[in-house]
Amino acid sequence: KSESKSKVPKEGVFPEIIRENYIGSQKLSGKKALISGGDSGIGQAVAVHFAREGADIAIIYKENDKDAKETKKLVEKEGPKCILLKGDISMKTFRTECLNKIRKEWKGLDILVNNAGVQFPKNKIENISDKQIQQTFNINIISMIALTRDCISLLKKGGRIICTTSVTAYRGSDHLIDYSSTKGAITTFIRSLAVNLAERKILVNGVAPGPIWTPLVKETFENLSTFGKDNPLKRAGQPSEVAPAYVFLASEDSSFITGEIIHVNGGDFVGG
Ligand code: NAD
Questions:
Q1: Which residue owns the Cα nearest ligand 1 atom 32?
Q2: What is the pTM of this model?
Q3: How many CA atoms lie within 13 A of 263 on its CB side?
Q4: Three-state DSSP class for 236?
């Protein structure tokens, strides 16, 4: 069968969140999942896939109420409930509010998806400001470690932590120097935390997407017509093509996998 048209990203066309023919088989039935950056792009696709697999969802998002409400609608159309948590993940007070709400509503947590991230437009090293470096590290890695630490007491035995890293963690990026450095740190965080939490039977893994058609890249890349064209599959991917990797890592199917990274990148980089 030839590649479906919906898989080929086009400028101005909203990314595909879930394939029409994605069959959920209740792999996450009754589970409770917290997803940072769950209102748009990859995080939104993960929220909707998890919901189709039966999990209740809480999403952390920074500011876009319209996207958050749309995600809630999409999740609840699948059956499960969706809690919206609006705020800045780098603020301790906000993280505490999130945890209090989850403790009250759910008592515990089965799955934490650390996915929120920022990326600033292409820059030569000499043009990167201190503010940009601090912001990129603060959101992408420092807040990820802090949120994870805060959630540990809520995570049940057998729980899952899944972090979004990036192909840039492996091959570097000449124009996203600060961003790719944070993703390298996330990759090391995943491996270290996996060992740290093994005794408590909490599995920690990551997904390293290559070029994926989301609002993040629309804001960052000047020339969207060439975005993703230099990988072997010669195209960018859709959020709907990344989310199933998260489902696998959240489900019983991955019960003997920890400290690993799944690469979803059209062959852009194979290894790790
Ligand atoms: P996106 O812009 O759609 O999503 C980013 C999310 O992060 C948003 O939902 C936003 O609400 C959240 N966020 C940002 N700052 C926040 C803050 N301070 N507090 C709370 N939430 C905050 O982009 P995306 O492409 O879906 O990105 C999701 C993840 O995937 C990021 O970690 C990104 O680095 C990673 N990634 C993306 C690509 C790609 O090509 N799109 C490739 C590799 C990795």
A1: 117
A2: 0.95
A3: 13
A4: coil
Pairing between strand 32-36 and 155-164?
unpaired
User: Which numbered atom of ligand 1 lies nearest the CA of 212?
Assistant: 40
Positions marked catalytic: 179
CA of 118 to the centre of ligand 1 (A): 6
Sign of CA dihedral 230, 235, 240, 241: negative
pLDDT, position 217: 80
Task: Please report, as a single letter, which amino acid is at residue 146.
Answer: A
Is the complex ipTM more than 0.90?
Answer: yes
Q: Nearest 10 degrees: CA dihedral of 89, 90, 91, 96?
A: 50
Say how far apart CA 256 and CA 106 lie, in whole Å: 26
Ligand 1: lining residues by beta carbon, under 6 Å: 36-37, 39-43, 60-62, 88-90, 115-119, 139, 164, 166, 209, 211-212, 214-217
Q: In the chain, which residues have pLDDT < 50?
A: 1-9, 12, 271-272
- Other CB atoms within 10 Å distance of the CB of residue 104: 8
Residue nearest to atom 1 of ligand 1 (CA): 216
